[in-house]
Fold these 2 entries.
Entry 1:
Amino acid sequence: MMNKILTIMWKDVRVLFGDWATVALIIAGPLVLALGLGLVTGGFGADDGLAISRIPVLVVDQDGGPIATALRDVLTSDDLSDLLAPEALADADAARARVADGEAAAAIIIPPGFSDSFLPDAMTGDMPAAVAAQVVADPGAPIGAAVVRGIVEEFTARVATSVAGVRLGLTQLATSGAVPPSELAAVGQQLGEGAFGDTTNAAAASLIRIDRQSVTTTGGDDFNALAYFAPSMALLFLMYAVTLGARTLLAERREGTLPRMLAAPVSAGQVLGGKVGGIFLGGFMQLSALILLTTLLFQLNWGNPLIVLLLVVAAALAATGWGLLIAAAAANAGQVTSLGMAVTLLFGILGGSFVPLENAWPALDALSRITPNRWALDGFTALASGETAAVLMPVAALLVMAVVLFAVAALIFRRRQGALLTA
Amino acid sequence: MTPPILTAKDLRKKFGDFEAVKGISFSVLRGEIFSLLGPNGAGKTTTINMLSCLLPPTSGTAEIAGHAIPGDTLAVRRAIGVVPQEIALYDSLSARQNLEFWGRLYDMRGQELTQRIDEVLDQVGLADRAKDKVKTFSGGMKRRINIAAGLLHKPQLLFMDEPTVGIDPQSRRRILDMVRELRDGGMTVLYTTHYMEEAEELSDRVGIIDQGRLIALGTQAELTRVVGEQETLRLHLAEEAGVALAGVNGTAGAPATMSADGSVALFSGLPGVLRASAVDHQIVVNVADAGAALPAVVGRANTAGLHVRSVDIEQPNLEAVFLHLTGRGLRD
């Protein structure tokens, strides 16, 4: 059963990649376009003056507590002065707007209650509900944003560890009888102040250790256009690749290879499964090849490889769904080509392949959500910014899109099966 | 008597209001070449498609190697090989890659598949082009690979649907020789064609099909007996005569105009002329006695401005049978 599906899938991939003109179009095309658009929109080469040092970061302290102060001191400490260019702001919305405008790589918003959320209740010892510092990242500066996020995460992790140490110490003092219960609160206060109360640079900096290492990357600049256009062009041509695959569903019928397959001991389901699998595999391989090539050629950092793989699979599935729907709706292979090209370009425009959609009209932003380009681009941008958790939403949306499109295409195919899968 | 490997009973196929096959019944015996001879649109390919389970019959049944149609679809497909009229190959793959793909669909794998691909490539004379992409092949070479793909799994019954359409005479000769070799090797072949010469040369038995009906069936000798002692005059005309044929009037006032079914009225009334039909740039005239009718037939054609270049006198053949049975020629 599976053998024949895999045989048909693999055949389709060989046919797709066996034509050098097609390979040039779907692999070299997006690379060249990404490079061209990168150059036009401000380049992607390393600007040493901006590279990894002096990352502009906005700090909004709405808490004012000792741990918030400690975090601010960490960010302004001498150890980080070469790395960060922090600026204090009072208004969180203003900070977000400036990040959206590309004026800062990230904004750190410390909400009210942040410090208290680390301190156990003096009477009961229970921990209050967590209040997390927010990092608003600029998708156009994924590396800078990732550095800021890393510093904040490291800081909060170390504070949490210190708090746990204080709690453990108090518990031991209490159980050993070394400190009477009536004095525990005061001792805890002293231990806490010892850990966080002294907000000198030296003490604060001890919460974060910065290791500076030389790396061979040529990137690392604050805004890397290639980091945006490489995935956006890859997704644009993913749509084209899947429509090429979907076209074969109808072309093979016209050329006689589909009836010939059906004259072999193969069920219609196996043939259809193999064809759909072939469309998916072609798209998956094209997208993977582009990611690999841009990683090797331009040292682009796409993020966690496993999550990248998950996103590629989801994007290829959703694009396959659209390809199938186009094939199901078209009367012949020529129509698939025409419709496919139109949908590819439309989705490219709507999905942000040519122009980032951060500041798009709300209606356009909503409309862009029907495209796999938009969701996958959101996912890749989040990944490159180090926001691994933020990839879950795009992946889920792409998978839901794939399921819905497969179901609709299957319904249409079922109606047309007599015409499509017979001689 | 050799048992049949295929028996079709009253097969019919309707597409909407159009009935393409109107109740065909015949048997194909094991080890023979059975030809379905008929003009384009006669229902040959539709019949093959029903027998290879690509199209469900509207009514009627068939049995192939003991497996029923409709019913035992997969078993029937395992027993048969199909060489379709189209060149059903992937241009961007090599000959070997194409054959590997089709072989795998018949559950062939590994050494068995490799060895069998070598054999069929040798059989069709393309072993030295195995690694070349099919798009670099001539039409005849593509036809031969098309046939090789149908032979891979050594089917008991091979359907060959007009396998020589559109190829050069050398490739056609090679394919006809190959079909005979397959039969001599024990394979049964159901061959469809609209070329009378191919059916005559290859077939152990012939079924003549026209407008969805099987109008005659038997060996060539049995079929030509239908036309009795008739002979055929084949008038080869100049190319421009094909146009003239459609417009000229006969000398006796009878219109020479070729009718929609290809019959020609120019020679009606001449002594010994039974019927006449146009095929390409030729006019086929059935006569009782070729020697006696020849001067009058050629004279009237020339008078009508048809410029007869040469005349063949033929003994009764399948074309004469078709003409006799339908009043029309086997047209392209």
Entry 2:
Amino acid sequence: MTAPTIGVLALQGDVREHAAVLNECGATVRAIRKAEELTALDGLVIPGGESTTISKLASDLGLLEPLVQAVSNGLPVYGSCAGMVLVAREVLDGVPGQATIGCIDISVRRNAFGRQVASFEQDLDIACIGQPMFHGIFIRAPWVESIGDKVQVLASIPDNSAVGRIVAVRQDRNLATAFHPELTDDRRIHSLFVDIVKGQA
Amino acid sequence: MSESTTGTLRVKRGMAEQLKGGVIMDVVNAEQAKIAEDAGAVAVMALERVPADIRAEGGISRMSDPDMIGEIINSVTIPVMAKARIGHFVEAQVLESLGVDYIDESEVLSIADYANHIDKWQFTVPFVCGATNLGEALRRINEGAAMIRSKGEAGTGDVSNAVTHMRSIGGAIRRLTTMNKDELYAAAKDLQAPYDLVAEVAENGKLPVVLFTAGGIATPADAAMMMQLGAEGVFVGSGIFKSGNPAERAAAIVQATVHYDDPNVIAKVSRGLGEAMVGINVEESPVPLRFAERGN
């Protein structure tokens, strides 16, 4: 596979930033707003945004079931921030009945680090992408409260008051980060996902 | 950087990036905030009176009661914004201490300082400011605004000023992209804006921060038109809770904002919404009550 086709769920959020990075990583990018657009994708990115809004729109627009179906048929997914909430099996501090795709066996707490004044930047040690450290941008970010057996932890908070909290995970061909690599110039997380899609990672 | 840092340019501007494609709704109590959240709002704006009532009742409008803002913060999980008067940096300090997620330094409230806006760089919490044209937008960004909204004319249900302001900002950006470098100095002088920001806009063809629209949006078609004119998201004030069926209208405006370029969806969600807010023609509104002319 030379140029994989990767969709970005474009219901709400920083769609354009993810699309730009995926392009630079050699993917052909499609904005996904309707169920029929899910066919012929090699991978899917769920961007940052407001998770309750994305979840409600996906339900109302009849996109949630097709998403669950596509992912269970093996479509690899990467979710950042709100996207991490959308791929989680369980959401803590969500709105009642907040629906998710649930393809990664994690329990995620929304806005876990606090309100916007607590949003922060911090360098992270992510072994699978090597050095230098990855600059994490956390905006009203979630964290992973607990993980299932099949989930691999990629990164944790090193040293602030939330030390040890899990902020990046992988399960099979699915990836999730609590931070926003699309808001930096570092392409390594998206490159990793493109490699996963190509079957090279 | 090994330690974590808060209040950076990237987390302030990045917060607004997360709101893109969404609708931010004015609410005056916890019950309205819940309706907005259930309808799919990306954030709510907590204020004491919606602009239509400020317009009708007159008097001085100020920052909202901290108790009311606290109730709204406790009732929803989505971001909560609140308004401070133009130049009123202590109202902004209070809002920051209450934990609001974004401050709107807003012309809808009375002006506190006729000469100066708030020095927004001094705050950890990010600010959104209104603008009627590109120069005004760049002056606010220079003062530290992390998000811009076109001003429109709030509380009227008349979208015409929002259209004028969005076209003015978009047109001026397009003209900058066609200029030679030496012409940008004169452009900066004309715009009364810093050269560096003007050059950045000329190079990128967009503002360095997210651009929403506001002021007079009352229907799903209004919201979709503003998105087609280049807005990255929509503030709806009086248009929802001054209408006949707030919950359905709110959800319809959310869907029309997502599918702003699909007339079939806009037609479908526009059905059966009941009465839109009655509205006031901006041209018939007395000049002292035109909010957009406050602060430049």
